[in-house]
Amino acid sequence: MTHVRIVATLFLVLTAPVVAAQQLDQFERILLPVEPVFYLPGADRFYGSAVTYASSHPIRYYPASDLLGVPLGIGELTPSHGENLKITTTSPTNGAGRFLFVEKGAADDMELTLNLNAGGEIYGALTTVPVVRESQFRTSKLILPGIRLTRHIECSLKYSGPCTTHGADRLKVYVYDADGTGSNAMVVRVWRHEQLRQETVLALNQRNGSDPSYPYYGVLEYDGTYNQYPDTVDTVSIELQPVQEHARYWAFAIVIPWAYEGVTIVSPRP
Question: Would you say residue 77 has pLDDT above 80?
Answer without folding.
Answer: no
